Amino acid sequence: MTTLPATTDRKLGLVIDLDTCVGCHACVIACKGWNTQNYGAPLADADAYGAEPVGAFLNRVHSFEVQPGDGPAQIVHFPKSCLHCDDAPCVTVCPTGASYKRAEDGIVLVNEDDCIGCGLCAWACPYGAREQDPVEKVMKKCTLCVDRIYNDTLPPEDREPACVRTCPTGARHFGDLADPESAVSRLVAERGGFDLMPEQGTAPVNKYLPPRDRDTLDVLAPLLPPVDEGPKGFLGWLDRTLERI
Amino acid sequence: MSEPGIDLTPGTGDRVAKTTCYMCACRCGIDVHLKDTAGGPRVAYIEGNRDHPVNRGVLCAKGSAGIMQHLSPARLRTPLRRTGPRGSGRFEPIGWDEALATVAGRLSHLRATVPEKLAFFTGRDQSQSFTGFWAQAFGTPNYAAHGGFCSVNMAAAGIYTIGGAFWEFGQPDWDRTKLLMIFGVAEDHDSNPIKMGLGKLKARGARVIGVNPIRTGYNAIADDWIGLTPGSDGLFILSLVHCLLKAGKVDLDYLARYTDAAVLVDEDPASPTHGLLMRTEGGAKTVIDRRTGKPAAFDAPGVRPDLAGRMRRAGTTHRSVFQHIAERYLSDAYAPEAVAGRTGIAPDRIRAVAAELARVAFDEAIELPRPWTDFRGERHETMIGRPVSFHAMRGISAHSNGFQTCRALHLLQILLGTVDVPGGFRFKPPYPKPAEAHPRPHCGVVPGQPLDGPHLGYPQGPDDLCLRDDGSPARIDKAFTWENPLSAHGMMHMVISNAHAGDPYPIDTLMLYMANMAWNSSMNTAAVMDMLTDRDADGAYVIPNVIVADSYASEMVAYADIVLPDTTYLERHDCISLLDRPISEADMAADAIRWPVVAPDRDVRPFQSVLIDLGARLGLPGFVTEDGGPRYADYADYMVNHERRPGIGPLAGWRTGETGIAHGRGMPNGAQIDEYIRHGGFWTAHIPDNAAYYKPWNAAYQDWAVATGLQDKPTPYAFNLYCEPLRRFQLAAEGKGRRQPPDHLRERIKATHDPLPIWYPPLGDGHADPAEYDVHALTQRPMAMYHSWGGQNAWLRQIHGMNPLYVPTRIWDRHGFAEGDWARLVSPSGEMTVPVAHMAALNPDTVWTWNAIGKRRGAWALDADAPEATKGYLLNHLIHELLPPRGDGLRWANSDPITGQAAWFDLRVRIEKVPAASVSHPVLSAQTSPVPPAPRNVAFEMPG
Amino acid sequence: MHPAPSLIAFSTLSGLGLGLLAMLGLGLAPVAGLTGLVFFALAFALAGGGLLSSALHLGHPERALKAFTQWRSSWLSREAWLAVTALAVMATYAALAILAGIVVPPLGGLGAALSLGTVFATAMIYAQLRTVPRWHHWSTPALFLGYAIAGGTLLSGHVGPAAILLAAMSAAQIAAWVAGDARLAASGTDIATATGLGGRGAVRLFEPPHTGGNYLTHEMVFRVARRHAVKLRVIALLLAFAVPVAFLLLPFGHILAALAVLSHAAGVAVQRWLFFAEAEHVVGFYYGRRLP
Ligand SMILES: Nc1nc2c(c(=O)[nH]1)N[C@H]1C(S)=C(S)[C@@H](COP(=O)(O)OP(=O)(O)OC[C@H]3O[C@@H](n4cnc5c(=O)[nH]c(N)nc54)[C@H](O)[C@@H]3O)O[C@H]1N2
Ligand SMILES: Nc1nc2c(c(=O)[nH]1)N[C@H]1C(S)=C(S)[C@@H](COP(=O)(O)OP(=O)(O)OC[C@H]3O[C@@H](n4cnc5c(=O)[nH]c(N)nc54)[C@H](O)[C@@H]3O)O[C@H]1N2
Ligand code: SF4
Ligand code: SF4
Ligand code: SF4
Ligand code: SF4
Ligand code: SF4
Ligand SMILES: [Mo]
Questions:
Q1: How far is the CA of B307 from the centre of ligand 7 (A)?
Q2: Does this complex have an ipTM over 0.90?
């Protein structure tokens, strides 16, 4: 299983809009809740009420600060989960075959029954998308909610990842990135979606949409001309204008 | 090799119960997936209810983490009686019979003798129409909820000006607005709706301008960031007003038709009505009718109010409000150049913002083909929209100049003609509702009798103040006094310190519900803890009895003499009522319920039901039947059968009409709660299209509101650019009128109670030396944490387990800070040592931290060395409820002088680098936990 | 990376043990009689103990057998195969040599190759990781092999060659450190490519996703202070090379030899600690700042 499929029929993945994400962590917790009850072992929290709580999460939201050469600094909230890479190094390093990429849709999964918890796949992932469960000691990662998207016990509109369903701003989009006509592919094309760490050669499926340019107002705005600079100017103007109404 | 078979279709549970989230006050609809286990149904998973008007299926981090709150190890298990000294946290379990008998015994004595000696204050609950009703029946004037320290400036300024407020009572027209300007919002009560709305704007590429000293969250995604100096928004806004007026970019038609801009003001300094509005015999506001040039009632049919109106009558000049506005704000004092220094915003940027507001409001105006008829009977073929919207929250209201700043923002909205129009700001039912239509405050106490009316309300002038015959405050929190006449929500943050000082009088029992007053909802927290434990000469506690109703082992619980343990939000009935803070959206009236989707596994009771029980034991009117028996079995019974006015109850949906089910108005329906449950836990009534905008003046809306039971008769009104109640207080301060303020307050009232929006520096700046305390210190709500109660949540506390102080680049460099450093923060009232972190996207004179992450050791079932207790801290320790003494021998509250709003964000500090510490200071003693220790690891999966 | 004691012990001990096995296999150390027994015992103890301790690093050691399945693609799987076959071949070789007194050089040669192959595979587990630019280089297996051979030579008591190899290794190690220090910067991965925000300005982490640690910060975002690292490098060089060489240059004695070996082993352990501790994983760009 460790070898990667040459191609996958579909490339299911997420498109994350950095222009829109407010950093609310809703996707983080929705993911935790769903995946605690479903696929594999529950996502555990060690020392849950103690001094050093460490839990397994499949999706985390970082915040970066960008200081442009001119203009004020910006904050960009940055959600990150597995990018379901086409050239997933996490899969090829796995000694047991527990890690694999599905040929039909490209989803990268861990078969927990086969995982020995060696951690190598987490080392191989440049994105920090894999975390070992602190209690069950098997590798955990985003499943792309494989147990939701094909789940016919759910109403059709709910067959999308938990993080996408919950995102209050709609910053997360799910779809088939192999299909150039899909909504996600079009978004990527329109908004200049990009890869994280392209030089790592992982060929991620998930794409990120860049924040739009910030602080452009001063440049754009034509200034307001005064109505009348004369001494009784404003009231004069008021009278004239009221006449016209 | 073949891929392993995986279960692609796991069931999420055996059943879904639809109820309302209560991880915060936003009231989203939730689908609670339940699994049936041997021990009964258990909660397995919570997700958003797609049909729900508030959240449309989305859920925030807190909402999704509800399961961990519901299972928190900090849940109280049983009623408790204090055994150790106050604050120690040592208790013994007692049964409900004993707890209720003790409380009822105490209260019945108070009610018969001195009802005001019970102070009953509630925090983040959502049943204030019920708790207020109970307190009124009890007869104490000392009741309020947390609004006074929360955002009463916003609420009051909105209601006095436009008859509604931002907060969660109105919202931008998310589908149509093209420019949103958002002031001082980190999260707000409308947490999910705002995020959903921002998402809509982003999807359309509409522009968002964030005004906030800190650029995180909503401000991070704003296209433009105005990182102004805290407390200076009023100046910034009035400078925008200046620019717009100068350019004539104001909506004259809207101003004339729908606002008091054309109403005439008495300008004779000698007149007893100097500065008041001219009225007709019938009491209507008077304008000059442009058709005739003669005075006329503002609302008379056919009248064309003249914005340039003026007249002399009996030797007195009267000029329109609008001329006063023009005169004031065209002044160079409000020119961008004049305000740049104080606001920290360059003149060009101010002009650019003004130009953009004008461009979008007037050049991109929209028109909906929806005919409507206004209150003068005039028919309009379309609805004109100015697609500029504003939203604001505590960033402008939690300052001591907040009321006037909020008013300034409403002035700006109105000048642009963008309130309740397409693309603008929209009211949510039961708003619009002007101040005049709200009750006025009541404080008439007679032992053994109910209070003479509702506690809280909107005073119209000195006559409505809550003063005793000797002029002293009637309420323990001194709300509705000359110190803060329009304290429409009360002043909860003053209760403990006033009760401790016996000023205006000592009390006997402090009953708190859902408020962590010994911790994050108090200013000056450490001192408040001392006040709660302070004893008199006889060794008795200065505040003799403290009763706390809480669900969790909070910091406040440790200071209780009796603890009444509440359920979690999934284990009780709640009523999110139109009488209260409903879940309406701009297009609909809506209310909702919570209901017990699982039964408690502890000896706890819903506090509302406990109040009903106490009400019956005390024989309170409204809580007993004619024969003296209990009137309601529990809160659910009250929700269904209580009638506030005939036909109007806590829940508007599925009432009983003449011919069957009726909505809005109707007799109680025994099956009402079942109907709510069947319909997803909520009820909605859509506003007809032709009534959906221009609501204050729209005859169709007014009729709909009457039919729906929101109001008893049509009450169209004009927006109040001119706040006449303020002028009445000013007049009194000038020596006119029956009730007179104490002398020491005259100058302050004259200066601050201006009927037109003004800006003055935060009052604290006149008490603390701004040069010595040169840094502004703020807090923000973290989106993934709710005040103190999120800290017990195993999932959320990993996101925010401690809170560094964020320091802007200039201060960071000046002090040579590096990663991992600690700083001492000193305010005029205290000091603390905290970890620092660098942030460039921050106003250069401001430091800040996340709110309410710090915890007292031993609270919330957390380990004593939990980061919340070691590295986390509360900025509240530095914020005093009183301003530093100024040598005048007076106690000046750290509050807005108009509303009494707690001025959390006026805080000034100085900062210095100190050697790295391992724990943040002050270090407070630990409390004993009244609940069993928490489990070490959590790996929670419901058995299938 | 977090320098896990089990991994340090594993790579230090198994490297030495496999190096000695290679020597034994090649007949460069005494294979017969009591001396042979002692040497084999030492070699197996080191190599076997190291491999066992590596199993301690596993979350599910009881499933370790599954690790043999993916030899086609996984270096870890290959390492498992190589280690087991190396030990098996060498055990046969040893048994024949000691019990039957029959030395089978081809078998020994095969065992030596497999032993060094195991070391190579171990090194490749690290060298294949593009995510750790410091490791992602041919010098990683070269160095591991060098250590194994030098250690094996030292253990097998070849004073002169050992001294020369140790001296050479110290130079190689210094060169590797110097080259390794520059590799992250040269890798092309930085916070700009990690976030894709580089085009907008200078990027830094503002807030990590959680205030506490997590598996990744514990495993991969370990940081060792620069000053600290230099000191440890000096200690590693002294213990692994300088002290043993000095001892070797003194008149030969068993005590001194033992001390030289212990010192070398300690030095290698320090070097391995640094190998992990200094390995900057690119995921660190997402966790740029640790809260106090
Ligand atoms: N520095 C600073 N301080 C602030 C603010 C600020 O901005 N900066 N903001 C202020 C504002 S606006 C507010 S509203 C306050 C909020 O402060 P509080 O009102 O004190 O809010 P919480 O900390 O959430 O505490 C509420 C209490 O309710 C209890 N509780 C939770 N759920 C239930 C329940 O179901 N039933 C019962 N009976 N109890 C329950 C909790 O255990 C807790 O003890 O903080 C204020 N304090
Ligand atoms: N997740 C979450 N949601 C909550 C709560 C919670 O605890 N957690 N609490 C609820 C409660 S009780 C309330 S009252 C609401 C409050 O909702 P918000 O008003 O959004 O609350 P704060 O976090 O106090 O936000 C104040 C904002 O004002 C900014 N600010 C401070 N001073 C100034 C100023 O002078 N000018 C401007 N323009 N901005 C300024 C601060 O930087 C901050 O961003 O949130 C509610 N929603
Ligand atoms: S839920 Fe959406 S907005 Fe919130 S952090 Fe996740 S992606 Fe961002
Ligand atoms: S993001 Fe990481 S875990 Fe996911 S497929 Fe790519 S390399 Fe593997
Ligand atoms: S931790 Fe599990 S999934 Fe990852 S490489 Fe090891 S065996 Fe494979
Ligand atoms: S797709 Fe599912 S598993 Fe992946 S991050 Fe989203 S919620 Fe978590
Ligand atoms: S905003 Fe979040 S916590 Fe508040 S009610 Fe909605 S889902 Fe619950
Ligand atoms: Mo609040």
A1: 45
A2: yes
